[in-house]
Amino acid sequence: MKTKVALTGNEAVAQAMKQINPDVVAAYPITPQTEIVQIFSSFVANGEVDTEFIAVESEHSAMSAAIGAAAGGARAMTATSSQGLALMFEVVYIAASMRLPIVFPVVNRALSGPINIHCDHSDAMGLRDSGVIQLFSENAQEAYDNMIQAVRIAEHPDVRLPVMVNMDGFITSHAMDVLEVLDDETVRNFVGTYVPEDYLLDAKNPISMGNFDMYDFYFEHKRQQVEAMKAAREIIKEVGKEFAKISGREYGLIEAYKLDDADVAVVVLNSAAGTAKGVADELRAKGIRAGVLKPRVYRPFPQDEIREALKGVKAVAVMDRAETFSTCGGPMFADIRNTLYDLKNDIKVVNYIYGLGGRDLRLEHVEQVFEDLENIRKTGRVDETVKYLGLRD
Amino acid sequence: MTPYNPFNRNFGSGTRTKAVRPDMKWHEMTRAGNIYEPGNANTYETGDWRSIRPVWNKERCINCLLCWRYCPDASVIAKEGKFETFDYKHCKGCGICAKVCPVNAIDMVPEEEIEKVKEANKDEN
Fold it and tell me: Mind listing the domains of chain B with CATH numbers?
């Protein structure tokens, strides 16, 4: 049974967590994620879930406790944002390398400094190389759906990796949105009972986990993590198809919006994809063949799907809500340009850094991007590869 | 909790082999370096870390077995209260045995000299 409800992104994620009913949640509040933890702890207090809630003293401890619980054989979760994720940094790598299927929502917020609480993706991008799977959500519906699928992806025997579910701070987390939620039983059946293969509390099969691993085998274990990421590409698609059966909403690695015949395209993550799609529709009405590519999965990077989706496009703008300070553009720009290189199609790829620290992305901004792309397509000339959108300049 | 099913679909999952050996490929090793049996440090041969090796002098040895007590890697093998041999597969060449020996019955010899002697013996044969 499906019900249409009005929820904020945080409420939707907390609702998903309630329906998943994890064994352990260890979390610390941080804006704009606080509500997830706050609402979920009220579910715990009211006896609506069976979860052991650990109120820790920091995010470093939150992920550490989740790791301990997961290594012990529990379905464990945490949640964070920005500085919290930064404080968690070293432990996230450990969760990934120990192959623990911890699901954790990250409500994307700028990293200090200067101190700021609003949306950008610098927190998530800081952990793109940590070995966790990263899902991105355009709106509350996708955040809810991603949370439920994340459990199945993380716990799949071929994967066994943490999954970070991203959504935009305030824009998605705090805005009231209409979405369709599933009933508890459907979700419970979909996520199933967690059956850990290796866990410390298995008295009959003693095991030592998180062992010291020197130059003679560390490299091999990193290679295994890459293979698990490769497997995740397929598993994410399989889980997405299965999720369609209970929800009517199918998810793949990317969303290709009006790209089949597109001349110009924008690549963008999370909520800004909605803005870009709206602008693409307007421009199509004016005869410009505009399209949008929204990667739903950023790690593992869906290279084949992106290459296929963009192969016919003449000019692409990658929009990054994070800066790398390489002076050569944002993080996703490098990935997309790399992906298109082998096509040898001479697709012009440019980069726009936008929305840092919560700066609004307005329709005019995206219109400007498409206008620039049209000029590049017509002239074949790129004047500036990396530009800043909505900046005072 | 249902018992686990062994799986082999994905190399990244690793295996449940009892011990990791240097001749294994990456996909044959245990996932995440998990260890499934106790006491397996014995299978990890640390002898190749050694640059100097202890050599026993039978004439001088008084079989006090101080070396046996002090060896941090249990690499002095004794039999019936007497010195028997060194376990060169695990001895890291720290030299503690030579240091504590009251009669200087253990010499620390550089590995390259041992190699030279070996080569020389080969030539003679």
Answer: 11-42 (no CATH), 46-124 (3.30.70.20)
**Which residues pair with residue A165 across a beta bridge?**
A105, A135
Per residue in A335-344, pLDDT (tens digit) is: 999 999 999 9
Per the CB < 8 A criterion, the answer to whether A141 and A12 are in contact is: yes
pLDDT 10s digits, A106-153: 999 999 999 999 999 999 999 999 999 999 999 999 999 999 999 999
Q: Does A98 reach chain B within 8 Å, measured CB to CB? A: yes
CB B63 within 8 A of CB A257: no
CATH for A2-247, options being 3.30.70.270, 3.40.50.970, 3.40.50.410, 3.90.650.10 = 3.40.50.970
**Domain covering A254-389, topology:** Rossmann fold (3.40.50)
pTM: 0.90
Q: Which residues on B lie below 8 Å from A213 (Cβ)? A: 33
The C-alpha of A209 sits at a distance from chain B's nearest C-alpha, in angstroms, of 5
Query: Of A304, A293, A307, which is closest to residue A265 (Cα–Cα)?
Result: A293
Q: Which residue of A has its CA nearest to B5?
A: A197
DSSP-derived 3-state class of residue A265: strand
**How many angstroms separate the Cα of A20 from the Cα of each of A10, A67, A193, A362?**
15, 18, 10, 36
- Residue B35 and residue A228: Cβ atoms within 8 Å? no
